[in-house]
Amino acid sequence: MVDATPRAERDIPPAEVPELELYHPKSWWTTYVFSQDAKVIAIQYSGTAVAIGLVALVLSWLMRLQLGFPGTFDFITPEAYYQFITMHGMIMVIYLLTALFLGGFGNYLIPLMVGARDMVFPYVNMLSFWIYLLAVLVLAASFFAPGGPTGAGWTLYPPQAILGGTPGGQDWGIILMLVSLILFIIGFTMGGLNYAVTVIQGRTRGMTLMRMPLTVWGIFTATVMALLAFPALFVACVMMLFDRVLGTSFFMPALVEMGEQLSYGGGSPILFQHLFWFFGHPEVYIVALPAFGIVSDLISTHARKNIFGYRMMVWAIVIIGALSFIVWAHHMYVSGMHPWFGFFFATTTLIIAVPTAIKVYNWVLTLWRGDIHLTVPMLFALAFIVTFVNGGLTGLFLGNVVVDVPLSDTMFVVAHFHMVMGVAPIMVIFGAIYHWYPKITGRMLEDWMGQFHFWVTFVGSYAIFFPMHYVGLVGVPRRYPEIGEAAFMTAPVDNLNAFISVAALIVGFAQMVFLFNLVWSLRFGKEAGPNPWRATSLEWQTPTTPPPHGNWGDERPVVYRWAYDYSVPGAPEDFIPQNDPWPEKVAARPA
Amino acid sequence: MSVILVFLAVVIGFSFWWLFHQKVMEKPWLEHGVHTALPETDVSGMPTAKVALAVFLAVVGSLFALFASAYFMRMDYSDWQAPPLPRILWVNTAILILASVALSCAVRAAREQRRKMTRLALVTAGLATVVFLAGQVTAWRDLAAGGHYLDMNPANGFFYLMTGVHGLHILGGLVALGRTTVKAWDDNVAAEQLRLGVELCAAYWHFLLLVWLGVFVLLAGWAGDLLALCRQILT
C-alpha cells in the first residue's frame, strides 16, 4: 500500500488546467462537416480511411485472381498488376492503418480517455482531416490520370520508380503519389501535434501518466514516433519529386535507357532506401503500438481482470518505440551493405523481440484465470495475440541476415508482413470497432453478424497466409505477375495459389457483412446504455451516450484510480470506474 | 545517418528525462481506496502553446537532421562538386541574427509591458527577416548567374533544396509574427497574451537561426573538416 494519509481539505490544490474555450458551431455545416469536435473528426477520418481501404481490398482481389489463375483475366496485364500491388500496399499501410489508428481512434479516444473536453487545438485538428482527405483524393486521382497510378512497388525505389519502363514513371502516376504522400505528412503532423500535446497537457485532475489506459499510451507513443519518422519520408518524397520534375540527381545514377544516355548522373539509390526505411520501420510500430494498447484494454475488460504488469507494459511500449529507430536497415540486407552493418542491425532487430515478448506474456497472464467473456471484441483480441505471435516468429527468421538473404523477395516475406502488420492490426481494428461502437452510436452491433464476421475473417486469413509461407519457402518470388515454367512451380504450388485466391475472395466478401452490420445496427441495433461492457475507463462514464461536443457536461471528471480495477475484492461491483472514489466518498468538492 | 541518430538520441534522452519526472515509477495497482480528497493534477503549468511549439520544433529539427544526413551520405561520393558559396550568405546570416536579437528585445519589452518598445522590436525583426529572404533569393540568382543550376550536380540540388525548405519555414513563421505584430497594436489584447505570442515567435526564430547556422556550415563545406576533426578525436 502506498501512503494512505488523508489529505486535509486546505491542501487541495486548485485546478491548474484552464478550461478549453470550445468553438460552438452554429450551423449544420460547422457541426457535421467542418467540425472542430474531435469525435466528428474521428468519424470523418475513419470513414475516409475505410473507403480508400475498400479500394485497396478490391486491388488485392485482382492481384490474387492473377496469381491464382494466371492467364485467365486478360485485363490484368503485368503493368496493371504492378499498379495494383503498389496502390494496395501504399493505401493499406499509410492511408488506412496509420490514418485509422491515429486519426480515427486517436481522435475519438484520447480526449475521452484522459478526461479532456476536446483536443487542445481543435481548429488545427480540423485542418488535419481536410488535408488528409485532399491527400486521399490526389491518390485516388492517379487512377484516372493518363498512364494510370504508379507501379513502382509500395517502396517506390528509384531509379525504376521514375523511369519510363515503370507504369506511371514518366506519366502522372508517380508525381501524384509523391504529392499525396507529402500532403498526408503535412496533415498528419497537424493532427499528431494535437494527439501528443493533448496527452501531455489536456489530462484531467488525477489522471497521472501511470493511470492512463494503455490505449492512450500506445497511441501517444506511436504519435511521437510518427512525428519524428514521417519527416524521413517527407525528405525522400521531396527529393524524388525534384528528380522527377526538375531533373536533379539526388537518387538517380547515370543510366542508359533504351540505348539512350539519360541526363541523370551521380545520384544514389541507396540513399533513398536509407531514408525510406528510416521512416518505414518505425511505421511498422506506429501501426503496432496503438494495436498493442487497444488490445490490452480489450483483454482486461472482457476477462474482468486487471492488466498484468501495467508498468512493464508501459515501459515495453516506450522502449519498443525508441528501439524501432535503430533497426531500419534490416529491410536492406540484400542492398549490398557491409556485413558488419548487417550484424549490427540483426542484433538490434532481435533485441526488439524482448519487450515485444514481454507484452505477449503479460496478455496471456492477464487471461490466466480471468473471467473470460467470449464477446466479439474479445474474440478479435485473442485472434490478434495468436496472429501477432505467428507473424513475430517468422520475423525472427527474417531478422537474421543468413536466413533473410535466400528468403528475401519470396512470398515468405509477403506472408510474414501480412501476418504481423496486416492481419494482426486489422483484427484489433475490428475488435475496437465492436468494442466502442456502442459508445459512438448508442447501439450494439448485431452479435450473430459479428460472430460470423469474426470466424470467416480469422479462419480465412490463416487460409490465405499460412500456405503462403510454404509457397515462399519452395522459392516462389514475390512481385511477379506470372511465373510460368519453373522448377518450383509444381502442381501442389499451383493448387495452393488457387486455394489462397479463393480464400482471399471469401474473406473479402465477409467484410461486406461487417459493413452492413455497421449501417444496420445504427438503426436496428440493441440499445447499448452508457456502459454495456461494464468498463472502468473514462469514456464509458460520460453523462450522455453518445457523448456530445465537450464530452462531460458541466464538470470534467476527477480520476481516483487506474483504468484496470476489475474484480476488486469487496467492491460492490466487479469493476470500479476511474472516477469513482470508492471506498470513501468525497464529502464536498471545492468549486 | 549519424546526424539524425544523434538528433534522435537527444530527443529520446529528453523524453526519458521527462518521463522520469512524471511519477512513472508509481504502482497504480496498489492505490486502492486511499483517497479522501481530490487528487491533484500533474499536468505542467506551462502554456499549452509552448509545449506544442516544442514538439513542432522537434519535428522540424528531425526534418533538417535528415537533410543533413542525406547530405553527408552523398558527400562521400567521388564526383561531389560543391558550388561556390555566394558571398551574400554572410550578410544574410548577420541579418537573421539581427532578427533574432530584435525578437529577444521584444520578449524583454513584452515582459516589462512596454508596448512601444515591443512594437518597434517586432517590426524590426519582421523587416530583417524579409530582407533575409530577399537575400536568399539573391544568393540563388548569383548561383544561377554563375552557371550553377539546380540539376547540374547533387551538391547544387542540396543547396537549393535546403535553403528553400529553410526559407519556407521562415515564411511560415512570418505569418505568425505578422499576427503577433497586429496584436501588439491592438490595445484590447492583454499583456499576458501578447507576451506569450512574442515568446513563441522568439523561440521559433532562435531555433530557425540555429538550423540556418547548421545549414550554412554544411553548405560552406566546413562540415567535412568538422567531421574529420570528430573522427580524429574519437580515434
Automatic annotation (TrEMBL), chain A:
It comes from the Bacteria. The lineage of its organism: Bacteria, Pseudomonadati, Pseudomonadota, Alphaproteobacteria, Hyphomicrobiales. Coiled coil: none annotated. InterPro entries: Cyt_c_oxase-like_su1_dom (IPR023616), Cyt_c_oxase-like_su1_sf (IPR036927), Cyt_C_Oxase_1 (IPR000883), Cyt_c_Oxase_su1_BS (IPR023615). The chain crosses the membrane at residues 42-62, 82-110, 122-145, 172-193, 214-242, 284-300, 312-334, 340-364, 376-399, 411-434, 454-476, 496-520. Keywords: Electron transport, Heme, Iron, Membrane, Metal-binding, Respiratory chain, Transmembrane, Transmembrane helix, Transport. This is Cbb3-type cytochrome c oxidase subunit I. It is a multi-pass membrane protein. It comes from Chelativorans salis. Residues 23-560 form the Cytochrome oxidase subunit I profile domain. Belongs to the heme-copper respiratory oxidase family. It is found in: Membrane. It holds the Pfam family COX1.
TrEMBL record, chain B:
Gene3D superfamilies: Cytochrome c oxidase, subunit III, four-helix bundle (1.20.120.80). PROSITE patterns: COX3. Residues 1-224 form the Heme-copper oxidase subunit III family profile domain. Its main location: membrane. It holds the Pfam family COX3. It is found in: Cell membrane; Membrane. CDD domains: Heme_Cu_Oxidase_III_2. Keywords: Membrane, Transmembrane, Transmembrane helix. It is a multi-pass membrane protein. It comes from the Bacteria. SUPFAM superfamilies: Cytochrome c oxidase subunit III-like. InterPro entries: Cyt_c/ubiquinol_Oxase_su3, Cyt_c_oxidase-like_su3, Cyt_c_oxidase_su3-like_sf, Cyt_c_oxidase_su3_a-hlx. Belongs to the cytochrome c oxidase subunit 3 family. This is Cytochrome c oxidase subunit 3. It comes from Chelativorans salis.
